[in-house]
Amino acid sequence: MSDFIRVIIRGRGAWVAGLIFGVLLIIAGIVWGATSSWSASGGLPGWLVGVGAGFAVFSLIFLIMSFASRGQTD
User: Fold this and answer.
1) What is the dihedral of CA 29, 31, 34, 35, to 10 degrees?
2) Vertex 37: Cα angle to 31 and 42 (nearest 5)
3) In this predicted model, what pLDDT tens digit does every residue of 4-13 receive, in sequence order?
4) pTM above 0.90, yes or no
5) What residue segments make up the domains of the chain, in order of their start?
6) In this structure, what is the dihedral angle of CA atoms 50, 55, 56, 62, given to the nearest 10 degrees?
7) Could you tell me how far CA 54 lies from the centroid of its own chain?
8) Greatest extent of the chain over all pairs of C-alpha atoms, in Å
9) Tens digits of per-residue pLDDT, 22-68?
C-alpha cells in the first residue's frame, strides 16, 4: 500500500477526506439540480445533497472530537 493511502485512511486525514467528499457531493448535487431540465429526474440531485451533508456533518463531528481529545478518538 502506498504512503498516501496509509495517511489518508487513518486519523484526522480520514475525517478531512470525508469532509471534502461531503462538500463535493453537495456541490455536485446543487450544480446538477441547477443545470437539469424539466425532463431530468428530480430526485437524484436532492439525494446527493442529502448524502453529502451527512458525510460532511459526520466527518466534522469526528474531526472536532479528534482535536478535542488530542487524537485519542482516532
Assistant:
1) -120
2) 70
3) 556 556 678 8
4) no
5) 13-68
6) 140
7) 7
8) 50
9) 999 899 888 887 666 554 556 677 788 888 999 899 889 888 888 88
